[in-house]
């Protein structure tokens, strides 16, 4: 009966030893794995670091240079400042009695200029080159205004108000002779009148501007939204009729001014009637196409 406990204790001891041996082997394996992993990712420092002795030599050199600069600065003679007084000559010393210094060899060998040369007259001044004067452009020929006979104004009668100015000839026609109220189509009476104007215009080669004007009474219809539309349409109708009657279209242009250029006050009926008009402005220009 006493042998059973002894055998059990030996078995326990063996189990513990085996467990301890296994734990020791496990620790050894763990150390080996860690050491291999460290050696794999860490390269040993095989190169020796250079000594820092050069740094001390560099500092010594800088110190010596600094000391040299300080000594040179102390030995340098600094000139007097702007407020300093000039040095005083010692009493009893005369500058006139000082012996002349030695003449430099190069100064003694220089040739002397004869005195006669100093009395020679001054040389004459050099001629100044001047560019030839450019010929002046001839003045523009005066504009010769055509006469009433040359324009054939007698054929227009009293239906057209003709104004001859300095550089323009204006043919002013009342809208009542050309258009019905609120319309931009030429009336039966307006066509023959434009035909007479076309004959007058074709006697020259000057450009003509057809200008439409109105009063200040607003207009709003399906055809015209404002007086600008109405005045421009009337000027365009006159221009088309002139081209139809043989006037070169390159000489013509149409423009509408609405009520921006009144002749009379729009406060009266007569003034508004005078402002409703079409004007043909012939611009006289001095060109080769103008009549002599």
From TrEMBL:
Family annotation (Pfam families): MotB_plug (PF13677), OmpA (PF00691)
Annotated keywords: Cell membrane, Membrane, Transmembrane, Transmembrane helix
Positions of transmembrane segments: 55-75
CDD domains named among the record's database cross-references: OmpA_C-like
Localization: Cell membrane
Predominant localisation class: membrane
Location of the OmpA-like domain: 166-286
Keyword Cell inner membrane: no
Topological relation to the membrane, as annotated: Single-pass membrane protein
Protein family: Belongs to the MotB family.
Protein name: OmpA-like domain-containing protein
